[in-house]
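[job 0412] stage=complex_fold ligand=iron/sulfur cluster status=START
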Amino acid sequence: MVSSAQLDIPQAIICRYNKIAAAKTLDPVFSPSNGVDSKAFAHALAQPDDDSLGAPVGVYVHLPFCPVRCLDCDNNTSIAHDPAAIDRYLDNLEREVALTVDTTGSGRRLQQLHLGGGSPNYLSDRQLVRLMSILDRHFKIDADTETSLDANPNNASLSQLALLHGLGFRSISFSVHDLDPGVQLAIGRLNSLDKIRDVFDSAREVGFDTVSTDIVYGLPRQNARSIERTMRNLLDLSPSRISCFAFTRATNERTHQRAIDPKDMPSLADKMALFNSIVQGLSSDYVWIGLDSFAKPGDPLSEAQAQHRLRKNWLGYTQLPPSDLHGFGTNAISDLRGYCVQNHLQIGPWQSAVAQGQFPIRGGVKLSGKDRQRRDAITELMCNMELHDYAALFDNDDQQPSTWTDYARDGLLAITGERMTITTHGRYMLHEILNTSSPAHIF
Ligand code: SF4
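[job 0412] stage=complex_fold status=DONE, emitting structure tokens
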């Protein structure tokens, strides 16, 4: 078995931070009890905002459909075998987009568009064309719009990828998780290396600029040898970017994970060592981006990080300037005009709100100016590993000073004068805590 000794992080700290990370959830942020509901959000959207009026925006569309459920899945998705269910979803998506632009004005330029899920490319060609025509009708998508989608390799084909490229997508991320057959069997997610290689080649052939992937660590049956094989195969594929996610078996929240045999799960120390193997395996060919992503040298993210202008929004690391973000579909997050809200998670409540002409919000928060400063400070720390003036972190919250002081006491942060930096140990231990989602996990 792998050992965490090479990292020299005390076992007690590994356990403590894994527990903190496992307990972190976005539920309190989007709880209906925060008082931000559909009406409050509609009111906020209707207020003129001089800063954002006419400025380009980001759009995220959630497409919660997959052919099968992977056992390690943490995403909000449903298993659909009836194309009519996806057609109905698109009907409601069209209503939701219209509801928003009726309030904010149509024709705003998109600086960023991302399709996530689920498996966005589980939609048929006809449905993908329809989806893009809905967005095209209401927003301005041009050659400078950063267009990306997540894709399930098992649903991808040369003709589908050519269609997606023709529809304007320039960046695609094939979700892989792990390339070892034993690990794939344990999570019920079978993607042969030949198939993955084929879809990577096809995406490049049709002209995608960025072909990326992900890797998940902490999966059942992962060990030092399996992760090394996966890393070798991954390097052969030469993805533009690799996002790295931690897996925690959470059987209460995600009952399908009960099918994973707990005896197959790596220990916490092994999990840490697996992450270390990924970092070491990628270090000669990739730049470590923020806390948990990797990009080829020369990639816009690598350059942005080198120039201290890397940012993070709900769609991930970005070199783009901050903008309003509209989220459409179940589970989608909107972050604009000081509000951060999430749509209903399930299709039923989402669709019935939209059918009644209401924003399908399950809950959210209104951020004060100080909250936003604090969020920006945490995000900057995550992106650039340092903060020149950490005072913003300690504003208006009694709990936070002790949290950051704890991190410093445990060697995860270094504080010199007004400057705070994330240490190497901190980069390993804090990414799950600060990054379950973004921006900055809303504290
Ligand atoms: S393909 Fe992705 S979203 Fe769909 S079930 Fe598997 S992990 Fe979840």
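Residues 66, 69-70, 73, 75, 77, 117-119, 152, 175 surround iron/sulfur cluster (CB under 6 Å).
[job 0412] exit 0
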